[in-house]
Amino acid sequence: MVSDSVNVSLSSAPSARDFGKKKRTNRTAKLKQCKLDARREQWLSQGVMSGSVKDKGFKDGTNRACMPLVGRERNPPLDALEMRRRGHGIEDNHGSIHLESDSESPSNSPKSILLGGTNSGTNFTGSSSSSSGGCCSGNITEEEENDDDGCLDDWEAVADALVASDNQESRNSCQEQPLEDEPVEQLNSKSSTGVCLGVENLKQEGPRMVPKNPMDNRAWRPDDAFRPQSLPNLLKQQSFPNTDRHFRRGQLPWTCSSAVSVPSSCPICCEALDLTDSSFFPCVCGFMLCLFCHKKILEGDGRCPGCRKPYEHNAMEAELSVHGHSLTLRLACSSSMVERS
Amino acid sequence: MQPSRARLFKEYKEVQKEKAADPDIQLVCDESNIFKWNALIKGPSETPYEGGVFQLAFSVPEQYPLQPPQVRFLTKIFHPNVHFKTGEICLDILKNAWSPAWTLQSVCRAIIALMAHPEADSPLNCDSGNLLRSGDIRGYQAMARMYTRLAAMPKKG
């Protein structure tokens, strides 16, 4: 058991470092990555799960366990099943107990999957408090990687992804086999961690869920009573620019994550920012405001409201002369602006 | 509409929307005048003000938010940076360090922070400041606690 968990963390460490190097430089790329993962998970698990029996899938998985780890670094966004298999694969590569347990039950029955999942779940919990148990061991591996290099800031979004993929799995497994009680109990005992609660939730809600509804992709609704207390404040989460649209279906994942948070209205006067305003960056700190307020501030103490450093005047005058024309135009056509002046 | 009015309406909406967001601050706008606000703030824990509820009066200038709001304590408080009689507050962000990006809510937060971290070197209440500056922390705390009990807590019975 112990060697297992060590192996897993060791083997996941180098790739995690690789991920880290790439991702730390670019946060949006990382978010993109997460999203890509989730979408592939959904897509592939739909395809595979609906097309084949779970046993077959698993056998396939043990074969793939021999897949070199390099491949996974080359092509990080793998689907959920592959992840799950990879969980086994890693263990197999290191000649651990799971290989034996798998080979002892060559029938590859669903039960062995669940047992394997449970075992690895326990191991993960032993090695890291943030991991969860149950049949989603592969996903945990992914999450652990992210946790290891500390680049996973938006873990609630990943929890959403977990639910999104597990949702489908649980629906499938509900059709094919009754869920075993054992992992659920284990989950219950560890339900203090957020992900566990999500899975538990899902097991209660899974069959009832409407899969196509994009809102169900969220692990917890804001008003969900099952939402763990330990989670960060939702309000904060919502103010985080990428969280909301993170896993929305039917959208290209990389189109929305490139968006920087541009306020829709001037934080000073609360008027809507027009096109000129929203491309107006008067200060290096990135604090945005409308040209009108900016001018007023320049007439006053001339310090940026965001960082309280004085605006650089040369740059400002250039900006003003460029935008001066449009400013007067807007003054003429906007009644509120006229009133203000 | 004046920008100050628009801005205050926005803040009013925010306050209504996020009433539960900060349980230590209760901001209410005067029914008839949006330039007059009142706030109730809870004394921060582990300070002599713990357990007290302090009332603040905001008077917002026409030039808000380019100019800071005027804030004073309505509740008596023994604090080096609060005038004991008028309730005037000596706080840099209410004077030269004001930024238009601040809101009434953030001013309340700053005042709570000031209560937890008195600045004895720019005192409005010399007695309090002198106690702190002479190192008599216990004396300051005892006085502050007494006034909190007297003025900022509901009377028993």
Automatic annotation (TrEMBL), chain A:
Residues 1-14, 166-176 have a biased composition (Polar residues). Residues 141-151 have a biased composition (Acidic residues). It holds the Pfam family zf-RING_4. Residues 104-139 have a biased composition (Low complexity). Residues 90-101 have a biased composition (Basic and acidic residues). Residues 1-32, 90-151, 166-191 are annotated as: Disordered. The keyword NADP does not apply. One of its GO terms (molecular function) is ubiquitin-protein transferase activity. Residues 266-308 form the RING-type domain. The keyword Metal-binding applies. Residues 20-32 have a biased composition (Basic residues). CDD domains: mRING-HC-C4C4_CNOT4. Keywords: Metal-binding, Zinc, Zinc-finger. GO terms for biological process: protein ubiquitination. One of its GO terms (cellular component) is CCR4-NOT complex. PANTHER family: CCR4-NOT TRANSCRIPTION COMPLEX RELATED (PTHR12603), CCR4-NOT TRANSCRIPTION COMPLEX SUBUNIT 4 (PTHR12603:SF0). This is RING-type domain-containing protein. It comes from Tripterygium wilfordii (Thunder God vine).
Automatic annotation (TrEMBL), chain B:
It holds the Pfam family UQ_con. The keyword Glycoprotein does not apply. Its EC number is 2.3.2.23. One of its GO terms (biological process) is peroxisome organization. Residues 3-153 form the UBC core domain. PROSITE patterns: UBC_1, UBC_2. The active site is at 90 (glycyl thioester intermediate). Keywords: ATP-binding, Nucleotide-binding, Peroxisome biogenesis, Transferase, Ubl conjugation pathway. SMART domains: UBCc. Gene3D superfamilies: Ubiquitin Conjugating Enzyme (3.10.110.10). It comes from the Eukaryota. It is an enzyme of class 2 (transferase). One of its GO terms (molecular function) is ATP binding. Belongs to the ubiquitin-conjugating enzyme family. This is E2 ubiquitin-conjugating enzyme. It comes from Tripterygium wilfordii (Thunder God vine). The lineage of its organism: Eukaryota, Viridiplantae, Streptophyta, Embryophyta, Tracheophyta.
